[in-house]
Amino acid sequence: MIGSRYVGTMLTLAEFELRKLRHDSSEIFIRGVQPALWLLVFGTIFTGLRVIDTGEYTYLQFLTPGVLSQSVMFVAVFYGIMLVWERDLGLLNKLLSTPAPRSAIVLGKALSAGVRSMFQAIMIFVLALIINVQLRLDLLDLIGVSVVIVLAGMCFSSLSMCLAPIFKSREKMMGIGQAITMPLFFTSNAIYPVTVMPEWLRVISAFNPLSYLTDAMRSLLVTGEYSLIPLDIGATLLATLIFATLATLLFKRILE
Amino acid sequence: MKAVEAISLSKMYSDFYAVDSISFDVDEGQIFGLLGPNGAGKTTTIRMALTLIKPTSGTIKVFGIDCVRSAASVRQISGYVPQEVSIDVDLTGYENLLMYAKLYYIPKAERAKRISDGLQYMDLSDRQNDVAKTYSGGMMRRLEIAQALMNRPKMLFLDEPSIGLDPSAKTAVWNNIMHLRDEFGTTILVTTHDMHEADVLCDEIAIMNKGKIVADGSPKELKASVGGDVISLVAHNGDCTQILQEHGELLVSKPDLGIYELVVTEGEKAIPAVLESLEKHSMRVESVSLKKSTLDDVFLKYGGARIQDSGTGREARRMRRAVRKRG
After folding, report:
1. Helix, strand or coil for residue B227?
2. CATH 3.40.50.2300 fits B228-292, yes or no
3. Which residues of chain A have a Cβ shorter than 8 Å from any chain B Cβ?
4. Which residues touch B323 (CB under 8 Å, ≥6 apart)?
5. Nearest CA in chain B to A92
6. Domains of chain B: which residue ranges?
7. Between chain B's N and C termini, which has fewer beta carbons within 10 Å?
8. A89 and B90 in contact by Cβ < 8 A?
9. What is the pLDDT of residue B316?
10. Per-residue pLDDT at B309
11. Could you read off the pLDDT of B67-125 as tens digits, one per residue?
């Protein structure tokens, strides 16, 4: 009973996020511009230059999973701003006055971000197919990628929801979002392989959830080498769990 | 059992008491008003009752359930309309209600009826499939109230229900609120800084100022406590002092100028009687006016200042405008 209510709350929040997207999906396209540039400009040029050693795969093949995970992270990391905005409006007070457990609300919000990320990713994915990037299009692989994308959205939105109760204002959250996205991006294996990184950067990369997410997507979409996927998923789940727990504990601070 | 019972309830923020040891109770089936200027501690009190924030000390119970120990049970029987916007303006009216019907775990079989009842009751059925940002201020408010009714709350908390509404929308919202009490016996706690609203709407009022309750009672009792209504008369052909004294307390009596002010309990009823007896003594009254005592006078007496419309109220209105589609 309690379990079904818990999951029910999460699914309800995600369902209405989807309904909002259905009413107005322009945001997906606007947010798609930046990842599109990474693929079309950066990817195409560096594929031609052949300066980054990506083994038997072309640079665009290597880059596409990276841009997918990067675009999901960019959407999800700014989710905390939405939380602050909802607090300012009164929506959050109203939501917290329902009997739903706080942690179900946090996870429901995270799942909403995951669902939103899905649509963002579909756009990038279609773009990659249009410019003829060779990807593995096996159904099971695609299902796996979807799971990884939702997980990525949940992970980074939980991180953002940990920060929102600490910084509390939209302006600060905007700055924080800017300040953490680029470091996360450049210390991950999204645009170059770990093998070309200096030693210190490899250490940082090993603690960066974006590296694990990108690695999982690269395995599923490009290499078909699944041996590290359990580690990738495990590490991301652990990070999500830590962020979501912290966010739940800090949550009531956002109201005060 | 009392619907709400607060005993020496306090909430302290870093360096000041937002709510300073207040005690009050609300009878079942009443509309109870917390009246006071912005920053008096009304919203903080409501949020403690709704378990959104924890009291620093003291207790508060809703229908006998402790708001700290059994927070989820309190939330299950309570409805809440915050002062700020609580509907998602990117969703339709129908979806806003459906979302909360689901969040309150209303069984599927019953959802459709509750939603259509809510829409009908708040007069929104014909716009239910429009996105809420196209609604007027009054419609948004009514949708918010409909949303708070999804779990058929025994206890409804309304924070500044008519803020930022035009007079006709205000009256519509008041009628809806009174209807809820009369038809469903819902107990309602409203906060307001609007004297007139408190007077029209509430059965009982507690006046708050600087975190404390400074006076409480029915609007009638409170107004009577500051004296009553004042009748001002102008009559030049003779001294009216003696005649007027039979009807009430004379505040001003200047026969040479022909000016009199008389304090009575119910002005409307006193005027005909006063005029009749003056006429009997052949006094010709040139003008008469009545100043009703208001809750503003009550607040002036107990709070030491007039309630002004500023601060959070302005902010709430700005927010409401911001979410509404322009043009």
Report:
1. coil
2. no
3. 5, 8-9, 12, 15-16, 19-20, 23-24, 88-91, 93-101, 252, 255-256
4. A89, B85, B89, B133
5. B86
6. 4-218, 228-292
7. C
8. no
9. 64
10. 47
11. 999 999 999 999 999 988 899 999 999 999 999 999 999 999 999 999 999 999 888 99
Tell me, yes or no, if B288 comes closer than 8 A to chain A by beta carbon. Answer: no
**pLDDT band at residue A246 using 50, 70 and 90 as cut-offs:** very high
Q: Which residues pair with B61 in a beta bridge?
A: B5, B66
- Give chain B positions within 8 Å (CB) of A23: 90-92, 131
| Nearest Cα residue to B97 out of B152, B159, B143, B153 | B143
The dotted CATH code for B4-218 is 3.40.50.300
- Which candidate from A23, A90, A99 shows the least CB-CB separation from B85? A90
ipTM over 0.95: no
Give pLDDT, residue B327: 37
For residue A220, the one-letter residue type is: L
Mean pLDDT of B190-195: 90
- pLDDT, mean of residues A102-113: 94
Cα separation, B323 vs B90, in Å, equals 9
Cβ-based contacts of B131 with chain A (< 8 Å): 23
B91 and A255: CB-CB below 8 Å? no
Number of CB pairs, chain A paired with chain B, less than 8 A apart? 77
What would the DSSP string read from start to end of A118-182? HHHHHHHHHHHHHTT------HHHHHHHHHHHHHHHHHHHHHHHHHHHHH-SHHHHHHHHHHHHH
In terms of residue numbers, what domain contains A104? 2-255
Reported pTM: 0.84
Cβ-Cβ contacts under 8 Å, B73 against chain A = 99
Tens-digit pLDDT profile for residues B216-275: 999 888 887 777 788 888 988 888 888 888 888 787 788 888 888 888 888 888 888 888
Give chain A's domain count.
1
**Residues of A whose CB is below 8 A from B323:** 89
The chain B residue lying nearest A256, using CA atoms, is: B53
